[in-house]
Amino acid sequence: MLSIIIPTLNEEKYLSGLLKSLRSQDFKDYEIIVADAGSKDKSSEIAQKFGAKVIKGGLPAKARNRGAKIAKGELFLFLDADTMFVPGTLGSFLQEFEKRKLDIATCWLQPFGKNKILGLGYDLFYNFPIFLLAQWLCAASGFILIKKELHQKVSGFDESIKLFEDTLYCQKAAKFGKFGVLKSNKLYFSQRRYQENGWLKTFLKIILALAYTIFFGPIKSDVFKYRFGHKN
User: Fold this and answer.
1) Which CA distances in Å does 79 have to 27, 143, 189?
2) Structural domain spans, the chain
3) pLDDT tens-digit series, residues 95-142
4) DSSP state, 219?
5) What pTM was computed for the model?
6) Beta bridge partners of 3
């Protein structure tokens, strides 16, 4: 079984899209756990409507750890709430993961919408670098697929880290298992942060925070002012 774990905070606008896309998959052997950080909207109700188990969450690292504690699957898939699968792609991700004998993986990302320039930019400045430098960067965002035993071996996510805790989690896990970037398909994500805060400002903030993490270590202060969840 696959355990899909999703942190949420005021995600009613996007969560239903993700859950609908999961329902449309050919692969059905999964459970969904939504770890909610006290949403003021209908996030929890939407999750329950789709048959998800809703538990108390927190910031992403804590929410993922809490979800993992009750997960029944031998594989964990950590997703952001504003992502979406094309029909039939979840199974192909899992097949590639097994075929390449991976222990932890992320995948190629693509912003959904008609902005082809943003899509090309994301390929050039995110997808290609993390793929070509996979064994050095071990970077991930929005999608982390990992074996349960490896998650337990590294004691889950570090809850003291404010930003890029997912990348540091992958780097830690890659010391004990094989990391890879799945390329059979792409996972689509919302452009909301870029639209709300400006394309250039948001992209530069992400790049700078990633560089800081790689060269200086964990971000444990609010220096980059990157907010979890959606404005209610």
Assistant:
1) 16, 5, 10
2) 2-216
3) 999 999 999 999 998 888 766 666 676 777 677 777 777 778 888 889
4) B
5) 0.89
6) 31, 76
